[in-house]
Amino acid sequence: MAKVKNLDEVLKNFNPNDPASDSAGVFGLPFSPDQSRLVLYPVEWEATVSYQSGTAKGPAAVLEASKQVDLYDPIAPNAWKQGIAMLKPNKSVSSLSKKMRPRVEKYLDGLTAGKTNKIILSEVNEACVWMNNQVRSDIRALLNKGHLVGMLGGDHSTPMGYFAALSAMGEEFGILQIDAHCDLRNAYEGFTYSHASIMYNALQLKGVKALVQVGIRDYCEEEMNVINSDKRISTFFDRDLKRAQIQGKTWKSLVDAIIKKLPAKVFISFDIDGLDPKMCPNTGTPVPGGLEYEQAIYLMESLIKAKKKIIGFDLNEVAPGKDEWDANVGARLLFKMCHIILKSNA
Question: Residue 55 above 60 pLDDT?
Fold first, then answer.
């Protein structure tokens, strides 16, 4: 990305210790997308969620909560000075999600009664294809301009277009998936691009060379069969990680084993339900167990120490509750991920 001529002037007139102004961007920062090394791409999409909805409200809630985040980060104190900005959501995507959600609910009601409405199913699958293509086009345009890109969902189906953009551009990479679920179902509930099928679909792309899953604790026999049949997949189940620690293994040693399974280039795909649900009680499908906040941060920071190059990330399934706790955690997690990718690409 070409050096922005007035970036120094922007920094000169910005005091990171002041409270965020009403006109400030994400994290209270003063940068426009064109001035930013890292651009955050929000996707207000939750068409195929199968339990609790609300994740489409995540980007707006995280943006608002982000203005309370302090900017000093010991791993890279000045990384934010490279510029971080969030785009406005693509309203066509948001509107289509809202249109499809009642149709999905009607379809699911019929499904539980043993009936499959093929008309609705076709409508929703076509809508998901359109969304994926829109995301792929938007992400590729940002990457071609030289930006690093972070995605903020929405449900966990949203990064498919990002994965497809990277693969189409010739990137070969591994996905580090932090999640409570495997997301390896083939067309869950009939939806080809269900949030529960994101990693199954990602593995169909030629650019995805490895999938390393961490924190998994809710999965089905179909997904176990996929894990056992695909050598690219390494799954670190939450049960096994916890028992290893009980028996005396350190988190560092477990993280080292996780990172050894990843190639040189890594995409971080973070479903917030990978954390202990006390951090995200309003997420769509919370599951007991999971990572502590600092365990997740240590894992991602360790990618930098291991000389892995982080080429992108997504943070998904943040569903704000009445007390905004989920958005508060999501905003701080997002800030850490921003600094981690910036430091990785310094």
Answer: yes
Which stretches of the chain are assigned E, i.e. beta strand? 38-43, 84-86, 148-153, 173-178, 208-216, 233-237, 265-271, 309-316
Nearest-angstrom CA–CA distance, 43 and 138 = 11
First-last CA distance in the chain: 13
pLDDT-above-70 percentage for the chain:
98
At residue 261, what are phi and psi to the nearest 5 degrees?
-85, -5
Are the C-beta atoms of 138 and 207 separated by less than 8 Å? no
Q: Which residue has the tokens 């951090």?
A: 279
Q: Can you tell me the distance from the alpha carbon of 48 to that of 197, in angstroms, rounded to the nearest whole number?
A: 10
Work out the mean pLDDT of the chain and round it to a whole number. Answer: 95
- CA distance linking residue 80 with residue 150, whole number of Å: 14
- Count of beta carbons in the 10 Å neighbourhood of residue 228: 10
Give the span between the Cα atoms of 6 and 35, in whole angstroms. 8
d(CA 51, CA 64): 25
Helices 251-259 and 238-246, axial angle in degrees (round to 10): 140
Q: H-helix or E-strand containing 283?
A: none
As a whole number of angstroms, the distance between CA 118 and CA 123 comes to 9
Pick 7-344's CATH classification: 3.10.450.50, 1.10.357.10, 3.40.800.10, 3.40.50.620. 3.40.800.10
pLDDT of residue 1: 47
127 contacts: CB under 8 Å, gap ≥ 6: 47, 96, 99, 100
Determine the Cα–Cα distance for residues 43 and 93; give it in Å rounded to an integer. Answer: 7
What was the pLDDT predicted at 4? 54
Residue 336 and residue 38 in contact, taking contact as beta carbons nearer than 8 Å: no
Q: How is the chain split into domains, by residue range?
A: 7-344
Q: Are 234 and 199 in contact (CB under 8 A)?
A: no
pLDDT attached to residue 50: 73
Provide the whole-model pTM. Answer: 0.96
CA distances from 214 to 74, 117, 234, 304 (A): 25, 35, 9, 18
How do 233-237 and 265-271 pair as beta strands?
unpaired
Chain segment 242-270, per-residue pLDDT in tens: 999 999 999 999 999 999 999 999 999 99
